[in-house]
């Protein structure tokens, strides 16, 4: 593919946040039996064949321009015909710096290869294409968010000539395309493994408030998507959509969190979550008559939106349209607790909001792909989304493409890493999680290709952090003087102690990463590497115990000089195998009795440690508490999961959605027991107050389904395994082998 195509653009480049149109007309002497067309652009394209839109949303997925561009391939034979045909493109160049993308230069490339009864043909981008700087999109409008992910738009429907996407249009007033510098700057063109963006659901929002020329709507939940407005107006009528997660006055801050929420003004807040902005909006200028406005070039997120319009303009219909990467979920959990059902549904809904060509943490303020957040999302993804493998591979590739020469990473990827820019931030703890994401690909998918491709990146990162250890054998908190660094041991609003020269969480993450690298290098038949990682693992474990272990308390300190023994620190110590024989029981007594201090990041480790070490009821009670954490969100009716445990930040944050995985793994009891999820252990648990459950989990050959019912007489279970999966069922004293197909187990007390 792309043997004949060249990257093209127009003569005079492009200003920030502008759209350029391209078309190429060609003749076919017979209708083709098939035709495959591959397309890429920087940053995003929309694509029509003879007036039929073919491409999806926000294509291609973001990547690092100076490492690779991704392309998508379509079968377009059904849209072609004998005689004249037209390929038409609108290409959005965002320009400037952005947090989930890189600048690069504006460019488009395409190549179509087809077959008809008269032979083969090829249509490719080159200087024979026509280009127009004039588009319905007015150029140069401000970017919507402080972090520069998307641009606000004004679409003037009268600026685009009727019929330009169709055969027969006279494009003599357009200019010839020119070759783009991208031909020299883009090192590689790779097929995009993950699906394109797609419309997932459409519904009519509630009309909250109306005035002459103004209407306020509530979509009922935070969604990633756009608004579709059907209107009847006069040429030149200007409409505006402003989006927000909340209404003015509803936004809490840490300082006023305990205060009663004030009555909201019937206007959308001027912000992207808690980042103030006047530009989280889109405008439309009508061409006259009945028309549809659906601004869908890039992703944005909102719950509320206000529509302003001339009073003479009639609004015929308004729809909320949920979009995202076309990666449907196959997993689920339900039970006889309405609260837990709402929680599970909110976890899935939030995750769907945050798959946007990359795995983002929140879909409005940041749209950023972090290593740590991606690992936390992997907990839910690998159990619930058949496309999780491709999504996680993309995370590892994006960070491999941004890896700094010494081995560490920028805090997000893709990103413009320009000295002095606002994106020059480091998050050392997150760097150290790269091997764990790679291990997830092995554990759940037996992905040999990923091991071979990304092991060098993981090894280089670990080697860098080993190289900067201090005299005590620990990673110091400050690695490079003056470097902007964010330590994220537990977040947000952590109660963990970070005073001192070294942090427990940072060093524990490196230790666990060394263990994964030892396992991976063994799988890859690298005995020298295996021995090295094992030796360094032993060395670092000793240094951590010497510096952090408090023998009097039998617990680990937050830092070598701290007097605090944070539950999250000690849960992580248990997971990392840092307690010696006889010490773990005392630590578990502490974890079971201590108040829950962990926040979003370490609550996963804390609850997992409780579930796996004899404290299942305690873990369940914390998970299902309707007055705190996820239970509070569900009890308040939220259909998405918040950024933190307090209602003061983003209301749709995917890093916090692992409760669904905890319910599937520790209540339904479904666990992966062999690489590729070809074997499973089913060990259900009925906590107090729960009498029935049903769960579905993605596995190698399909979906594992487990249902359970409990009564005073005993318990009954149904387990169905897909083809190629076997396992064992355990409940109390009962143990039974499982084969593919349906197995019923009935236990009488």
Provide an overview of this structure.
- The structure is a single chain.
- The protein is of the alpha+beta class and 749 residues long.
- It is 24% helix and 28% strand.
- It has 15 helices and 35 strands.
- The strands form 8 sheets. Strands 11, 15, 16, 17, 18, 21, 22, 23 and 24 form a 9-stranded mixed β-sheet that branches.
- A hairpin with a 6-residue loop joins β28 (670-672) and β29.
- α6 (434-445) runs antiparallel to α7 and α12 (600-612) runs antiparallel to α13 (616-624).
- It is globular.
- 50% of the residues are buried.
- The mean pLDDT is 96.
Q: End-to-end span in angstroms?
A: 65 Å
Structural class: alpha+beta
Coarse shape: globular
Mean pLDDT: 96
Number of helices: 15
Name the poorly predicted regions.
none
Computed CA radius of gyration, to the nearest angstrom: 27 Å
Q: State the total count of DSSP E strands.
A: 35
Task: Please report which band the strand proportion falls in: under 5%, 5-15%, 15-25%, 25-35%, 35-45% or over 45%.
Answer: 25-35%
Largest sheet: 9 strands, mixed
Question: How much helicity do the residues have?
Answer: 10-25%
């Amino acid at each position: 593919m792309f043997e004949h195509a060249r990257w093209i653009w127009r003569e005079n480049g492009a200003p920030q946040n502008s759209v350029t149109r391209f078309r190429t007309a060609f003749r076919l002497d017979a209708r083709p039996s098939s035709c495959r067309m591959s397309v890429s652009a920087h940053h995003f394209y929309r694509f029509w064949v003879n007036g039929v839109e073919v491409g999806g949303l926000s294509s291609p997925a973001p990547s690092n321009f100076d490492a690779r561009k991704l392309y998508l391939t379509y079968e377009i034979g059904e849209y072609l015909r004998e005689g004249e045909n037209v390929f038409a493109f609108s290409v959005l160049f965002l320009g400037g710096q952005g947090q989930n993308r890189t600048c690069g230069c504006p460019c488009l490339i395409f190549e179509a290869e087809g077959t008809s009864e008269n032979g083969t043909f090829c249509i490719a981008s080159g200087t024979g294409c026509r280009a127009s700087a004039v588009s319905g999109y007015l150029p140069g409008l401000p970017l919507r968010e402080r972090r520069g992910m998307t641009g606000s738009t004004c679409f003037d429907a009268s600026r685009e000539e009727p019929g330009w996407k169709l055969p027969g249009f006279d494009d003599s007033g357009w200019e010839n395309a020119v070759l783009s510098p991208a031909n020299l700057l883009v090192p590689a063109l790779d097929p995009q493994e993950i699906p394109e963006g797609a419309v997932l659901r459409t519904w009519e929002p509630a009309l909250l408030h109306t005035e002459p020329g103004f209407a306020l709507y509530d979509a009922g939940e935070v969604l990633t998507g756009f608004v579709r407005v059907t209107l009847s107006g006069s040429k030149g009528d200007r409409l505006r959509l402003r989006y927000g997660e909340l209404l003015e006055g509803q936004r809490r801050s840490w300082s006023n969190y305990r205060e009663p929420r004030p009555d909201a003004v019937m206007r959308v807040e001027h912000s992207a979550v808690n980042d103030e902005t006047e530009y989280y909006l889109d405008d439309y200028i009508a061409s006259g008559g009945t028309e549809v406005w659906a601004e869908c070039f890039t992703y944005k997120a909102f719950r509320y939106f206000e529509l302003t319009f001339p009073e003479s303009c009639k609004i015929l219909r308004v729809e909320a349209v949920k979009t995202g990467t076309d990666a449907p979920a196959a997993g689920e959990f339900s039970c006889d607790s309405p609260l837990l059902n709402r929680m599970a549904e909110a976890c899935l809904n939030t995750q769907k909001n945050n798959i946007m060509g990359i795995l983002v943490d929140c879909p409005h303020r940041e749209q950023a792909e972090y290593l740590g957040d991606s690992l936390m999302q992997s907990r839910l993804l690998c159990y619930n989304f058949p496309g999780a493998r491709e999504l996680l591979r993309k995370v590892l590739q994006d960070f491999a493409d941004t890896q700094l020469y010494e081995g560490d990473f920028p805090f997000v990827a893709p990103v413009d890493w320009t000295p002095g820019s606002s994106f020059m931030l480091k998050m050392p703890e997150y760097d150290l999680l790269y091997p764990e994401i790679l291990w997830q690909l092995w554990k759940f998918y037996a992905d040999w290709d990923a091991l071979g491709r990304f092991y060098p990146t993981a090894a280089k990162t670990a080697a860098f952090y080993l190289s900067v250890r201090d005299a005590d054998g620990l990673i110091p908190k400050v690695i490079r003087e003056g470097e902007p660094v964010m330590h994220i041991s537990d977040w947000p609003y952590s109660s963990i102690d970070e005073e001192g020269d070294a942090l427990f969480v940072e060093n524990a993450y490196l230790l666990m990463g060394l263990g994964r690298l030892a396992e991976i290098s063994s799988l890859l038949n690298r005995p020298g590497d295996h021995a090295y990682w094992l030796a360094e693992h032993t060395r670092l474990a000793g240094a951590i115990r010497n510096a952090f272990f408090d023998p009097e308390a039998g617990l680990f300190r937050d830092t070598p000089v701290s007097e605090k023994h944070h539950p999250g620190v000690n849960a992580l110590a248990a997971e990392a195998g840092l307690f010696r024989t006889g010490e773990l029981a005392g630590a578990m007594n502490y974890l079971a009795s201590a108040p829950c201090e962990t926040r979003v990041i370490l609550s996963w480790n804390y609850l997992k440690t409780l579930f796996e070490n004899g404290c299942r009821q305690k873990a369940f009670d914390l998970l299902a508490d309707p007055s705190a954490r996820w239970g509070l969100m569900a009890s308040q009716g939220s259909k998405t999961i918040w950024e933190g445990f307090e209602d003061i930040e983003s209301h749709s944050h995917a890093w916090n959605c692992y409760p669904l995985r905890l319910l599937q793994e520790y209540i339904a009891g479904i666990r992966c027991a062999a690489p590729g999820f070809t074997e499973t252990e089913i060990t259900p648990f009925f906590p107090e107050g729960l009498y029935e459950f049903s769960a579905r989990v993605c596995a190698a050959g399909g979906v594992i389904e487990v249902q359970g019912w409990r009564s005073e007489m005993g318990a009954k279970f149904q387990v169905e395994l897909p083809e190629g999966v076997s396992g064992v069922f355990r409940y109390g004293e009962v143990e039974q082998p499982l084969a593919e197909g349906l197995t019923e187990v009935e236990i009488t007390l």
